[in-house]
């Protein structure tokens, strides 16, 4: 029995070996590179058709078991440690640790008491050239969900 973590490692290893880009897989699947990457690393579920298209783009033939794993609703937030050791992921945590209360205060001032949805949500990651060194631009776009009184 293959685990979801093992399947993720297989996908990433194959992608690395073949040089296929997430953007190429996303074009074949017909979704954003951010959504397809999240699905293939185990954070979102795909339809059978999306799995087949992703497999074609990657040059992988998924077994029925692997297809089922990619179609299952995942356990989200599956970083193996409470504070991630990976430097890039840790820096994203650092952004929230330093600026989270600021983001919260500004969102609540603009919208009121509520949250930004990670369900009705889009993300865009791009590169911006800068003479001092290229910049990573991350746009998080989530629907505002107010807390209800009852």
Note the main attributes of this structure.
globular; 150 residues; two-stranded antiparallel sheet; 434 Repressor (Amino-terminal Domain); 6 helices; 50% helix
CATH fold-level topology of the largest domain: 434 Repressor (Amino-terminal Domain)
- Overall structural domain count: 2
**What is the count of DSSP helices, taking H or I runs of 4+ residues?**
6
Radius of gyration: 18 Å
Biggest β-sheet strands, sense, barrel:
2 strands, antiparallel
- Principal-axes geometry comes out as globular
Helix content: 40-55%
Average pLDDT, rounded to a whole number, is: 93
Active site: 91, 94, 117
Domain Cyanate lyase C-terminal: 78-150
InterPro entries: Cyanase (IPR008076), Cyanate_lyase_C (IPR003712), Cyanate_lyase_C_sf (IPR036581), CYNS_N (IPR048564), Lambda_DNA-bd_dom_sf (IPR010982)
GO molecular function, one term: DNA binding
3D architecture notes:
This protein is α+β, with helices and mostly antiparallel strands and 150 residues long. The protein folds into two domains: 4-71, 434 Repressor (Amino-terminal Domain) (Orthogonal Bundle); 87-146, Cyanate lyase, C-terminal domain (Cyanate Lyase, Chain: A, domain 2), CATH 3.30.1160.10. The protein has six helices and two strands; from the N terminus they run ααααααββ. It has helices at 4-18, 22-29, 33-40, 48-58, 64-71, 87-111; strands at 114-128, 135-146. Strands 1-2 form a two-stranded antiparallel ribbon. The longest helix has 25 residues, at 87-111.
């Amino acid at each position: 029995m293959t685990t979801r973590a093992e399947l993720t490692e297989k996908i990433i290893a194959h992608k690395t070996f073949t040089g296929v880009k997430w953007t190429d897989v996303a074009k074949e699947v017909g979704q954003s590179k951010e959504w397809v990457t999240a699905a293939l690393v185990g954070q979102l579920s795909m339809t059978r058709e999306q799995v087949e298209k992703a497999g074609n783009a990657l040059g992988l033939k998924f077994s029925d078991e692997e297809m089922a794993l990619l179609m299952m609703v995942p356990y989200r937030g599956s970083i193996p440690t409470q504070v991630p050791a990976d430097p890039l992921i840790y820096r994203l945590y650092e952004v929230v640790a330093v600026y989270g209360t600021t983001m919260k205060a500004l969102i609540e001032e603009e919208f009121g008491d509520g949250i930004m949805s990670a369900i009705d949500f889009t993300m865009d990651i791009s590169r911006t050239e800068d003479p001092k060194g290229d910049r990573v631009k991350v746009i998080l776009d989530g629907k505002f969900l107010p807390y209800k009184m009852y």
